Amino acid sequence: MAALWLARASSQMARRAARRHPSLRRPSRHGGAPASPWLLGPAAQPPVLGSPPLPAAERAFRRGFCSVRSFAGESSAAAASDEEEPEKGFAGGDQQALDFPGGKVSLVAEMNFLPESHGERISCYRVLDDDGRTISGSRFQEVSKEVALKMYSEMVTLQIMDNIFYEAQRQGRISFYLTSNGEEAINIASAAALSADDIVLPQYREPGVLLWRGFTLQEFANQCFGNNMDYGKGRQMPIHYGSNRLNYFTVSSPIATQLPQAVGAAYSLKMDKKDACAITYFGDGGTSEGDFHAALNFAAVMEAPVIFFCRNNGWAISTPTTEQFRSDGVVVRGQAYGIRGIRVDGNDALAVYSAVHAAREMAITEGRPILVEALTYRVGHHSTSDDSTKYRPVDEIEHWRTARDPISRYRKWVQGNDWWSDSEESELRNRVRKELLQAIQVAERMPKPPVSELFTDVYDQIPSNLQEQEQLLRDTIMKHPADYPTDVPV
Amino acid sequence: MKLDPTVCVFGEDVGHYGGSYKVTKGLADMFGDLRVLDTPIAENSFTGMGVGAGMKGLRPVVEGMNMGFLLLAYNQISNNCGMLHYTSGGQFKIPVVIRGPGGVGRQLGAEHSQRLESYFQSIPGLQMVACSTPYNAKGLMKAAIRSENPVVLFEHVLLYNLKEKIPDEEYVLCLEEAEMVRPGEHVTILTYSRMRYHVMQAAKTLVDKGYDPEVIDIRSLKPFDLHTIGNSIKKTHRVLIVEECMRTGGIGASLRSAIIDNFWDYLDAPIMCLSSQDVPTPYASTLEDATVVQPAQIVAAVEQICQ
Question: Looking at A10, A153, A382, A396, which residue is catalytic?
Answer without folding.
Answer: A382
